[in-house]
Write a structure and sequence with these properties.
Helix content is 34%, strand content 20%. By secondary structure, the chain is α+β, with helices and mostly antiparallel strands. The chain has 2 domains: 138 residues, Creatine Amidinohydrolase, Chain A, domain 1 (3-Layer(aba) Sandwich), CATH 3.40.350.10; 247 residues, Creatine Amidinohydrolase (Alpha-Beta Complex), CATH 3.90.230. Helix 6 packs across helix 7 and helix 8 packs antiparallel against helix 9. It is elongated, with a radius of gyration of 24 Å. It starts with a helix and ends with a strand.
Length: 392
């Protein structure tokens, strides 16, 4: 059962008349999760569910799938043809004038821009002003329970252990002159995950040499690079406990297959880690001072450090992303580049801080997770202070 009273309280606080949910062929997983619907249920016809700021919710469903929203409270309206749907929309919306939907003006925040333009036009035709539900989504999708935080910490211990063991395994294989590719090390890590009760939607990134300059490099069974002495090795690793409701832990660490890290790598890592640390400090200081904090502002702080070091054009992705039951969650991202994320950083949410510099020859990234609780923000795992010399 969804938290109707909690939703209505948030609507009143935000000055909204209603939150209008809409789905067709499960195109909006946010709606299903917030409302507690069965993701495996049939969804071949359009449905609407309106939660007003006060009073009883209303639903509009197709006659063929009339029971689609029976698990939810509220008065049911039904339609068969398009004309009947349009006649029932005014009854569904009632007197609501300012309505939130999974929509983002100019697609500024694509993660919540899930309702098609035609449906938005239909709702606007009822005299409604449609606004983004982005901050409402954060409240009900991105805020963690105490149990979820503990699942993050537990997953973190397993992910950290697997990451460090992967570095040791790579070093052992290189010393023994035993062949090892990026893909083989990735698969070895996944085996460690399974043994630790950790799961992941996508496998970790294992990259050496020029592949470290590709932020989303994917090693393949054929064509991935061998891992050799003298290689820079990047491990981007994320996972969560293999049980319902668990949330992700997501990190990036770097090692060097040699006894001493070359200066060209150490120099870039020092800049990246400074950007990471400045961003973390900015978050902590802003919250401690009671200042409202938006995702783009955190990105700006990290990006300014790298720009001053004259590597700004090589920082080609956002500073961080929200973390939840999906590794890229539906809360505020630390992003002023790919989007201008004006969503507030809310209590009981978690996000990555992961600045990077990606040159033609190699790339460097350092990634940690930051959890916000009240006026405090804490890094939930160890922070790398320098590239690890793996053959020292």
């Amino acid at each position: 059962m969804p938290q109707i009273e909690a939703i209505q309280s948030e609507l009143r606080s935000a000055g909204l008349d209603a939150w209008l949910f809409y789905d067709f062929h499960h195109r909006d997983p946010i709606a299903g999760r917030v409302l507690g619907l069965d993701p495996g249920a049939m969804g071949t016809r359009r449905w609407f569910y309106l939660v007003p700021k006060r009073g009883t919710p209303r639903k509009l469903v197709h006659r063929i799938e009339a029971g689609a929203l029976d698990s939810l409270p509220g008065r049911k309206l039904v339609y068969a043809g398009l004309d009947e749907l349009r006649r029932n929309l005014p009854r569904l919306i009632g007197g609501a004038k300012k309505v939130a939907m999974q929509y983002s003006p100019q697609n500024a925040i694509p993660y919540v821009s899930l309702v098609d333009a035609g449906t938005i036009e239909m709702v606007r035709a009822q005299g409604c002003r449609v606004v983004t539900s982005a901050d409402l989504v954060q409240k009900f999708e991105a805020s963690w329970s105490a149990e979820q935080y503990e699942s993050h910490v537990e997953a973190g211990r397993a992910v950290d252990r697997t990451t460090q063991e992967a570095f040791l395994y790579a070093a052992t294989q290189v010393r023994a002159k035993s062949p090892l590719t990026e893909y083989e090390l990735q698969q070895w890590m996944l085996a460690q995950f399974r043994a630790s009760g950790v799961t992941t939607a996508e496998p970790p990134i294992v990259a050496v040499g020029r592949h470290t300059a590709d932020p989303h490099y994917e090693p393949r069974p054929s064509g991935s690079s061998p891992i050799r002495a003298g290689d820079l090795l990047l491990l981007d690793v994320w996972g969560k406990l293999d049980r319902p409701g668990s949330v992700y832990y997501d990190i990036t660490w770097m090692g060097y297959l040699g006894a001493e890290v070359p200066r060209k790598y150490a120099k870039i890592f020092a800049i990246v880690s400074q950007a990471r640390d400045r961003a973390i400090a900015f978050v902590q200081q802003s919250l401690a001072a009671g200042r409202a904090l938006q995702g783009w502002q955190v990105d700006h702080v990290a990006r300014e450090v790298i720009a001053k070091a004259r590597y700004g054009k090589y920082f080609v992705h956002r500073t961080g992303h929200n973390i939840g039951q999906e590794v890229h969650g539906n809360g505020a991202n630390m992003d002023g580049l790919e989007t201008h994320d004006t969503r507030r950083v809310l209590p009981r949410t978690c996000f990555s801080i992961e600045p990077g510099i990606y040159l033609q020859e190699f790339g460097v990234r350092s990634e940690v997770n930051v959890y916000v609780e009240g006026s405090e923000a804490k890094v939930t795992g160890p922070m790398q202070t320098g590239i690890l010399p793996l053959l020292a």
